[in-house]
Amino acid sequence: MLRNSKSGYGWIAITFHWTMALLIIGMLSLGLYMHQLPQTEPATFQLFQLHKSIGFVVLTLAVLRLFWRLINPSPRLPDGMPPLEKAAAHLGHAGLYALIFALPVTGWFMVSASPWGIPTILFNVLPVPHLHVPAALGSQEEAESFFKLLHEYGAYLLIALITVHVAAALKHHFISRDDTLNRMISAAPGKTDN
Ligand code: HEM
Ligand code: HEM
């Protein structure tokens, strides 16, 4: 089953979910690690380039994933789930979606605003143009600091949301003992299917 149904995720949504989860957790770790390194070292420069390249892979996957989600049914949340918990789950998913776009986009604006003008060449092959940075944001340094702040706090918010998201998934699996986690692991019909 490639497509989602009302009762479960299809293999395409599942592959998007876990590929992106791995890439995003890797990117958060890489970002926090490289931020502490001496900025003038050539090895640091290479890590920044890798971070930018993978960031664009995440952005491309985010666009494809959102498109796939819009043309597929969304699986229903478990029937017995209280309305407030359902609303929290929807809000959490919307927040995760918003941040998997916001992180790469603020990163892209940050490097576009930088007075260093370092080009972005994905995996040393594909050049990516700089974005137009609104003049209202002030000098290049000011605009760069603004996007750096958004990128950094966006990353902290994403870490917080992922933590709650994972805790909720584990609670469903081990305490409520419903199919929520199983249906994000396998597209095979689960016990709540009808
Ligand atoms: C999923 C996508 C991304 C995630 C999760 C992510 C995450 C992070 C994190 C956690 C940091 C460290 C923040 C700090 O402590 O200040 C960081 C730094 C950085 N990111 Fe990203 N990032 C993403 C995409 C991008 C993209 C697409 C670009 C550029 C095109 C980019 C450019 C940068 C740069 C230049 C820094 C270093 C800022 C500095 O400390 O000077 N990031 N990122
Ligand atoms: C970077 C990490 C992650 C992100 C950005 C993320 C994002 C999302 C999003 C946006 C959804 C909504 C469904 C969709 O449209 O695809 C979702 C569903 C789900 N995620 Fe994650 N996720 C991450 C990591 C994890 C991890 C580590 C687990 C498990 C421990 C997990 C378990 C689930 C489950 C069980 C669902 C299905 C919920 C339902 O049935 O409605 N996620 N995730």
Automatic annotation (TrEMBL):
GO terms for biological process: respiratory electron transport chain. Its cofactor is heme b. Keywords: Cell membrane, Electron transport, Heme, Iron, Membrane, Metal-binding, Transmembrane, Transmembrane helix, Transport. It holds the Pfam family Ni_hydr_CYTB. GO terms for cellular component: plasma membrane. Residues 9-186 form the Cytochrome b561 bacterial/Ni-hydrogenase domain. The chain crosses the membrane at residues 12-33, 53-71, 91-111, 153-170. InterPro entries: Cyt_b561_bac/Ni-Hgenase, Cytochrome_b561_oxidase, Di-haem_cyt_TM. It is a multi-pass membrane protein. It is found in: Cell membrane. It comes from the Bacteria. One of its GO terms (molecular function) is electron transfer activity. PANTHER family: CYTOCHROME B561 (PTHR30529), CYTOCHROME B561 HOMOLOG 2 (PTHR30529:SF1). Belongs to the cytochrome b561 family. This is Cytochrome b561. It comes from Roseibium marinum.
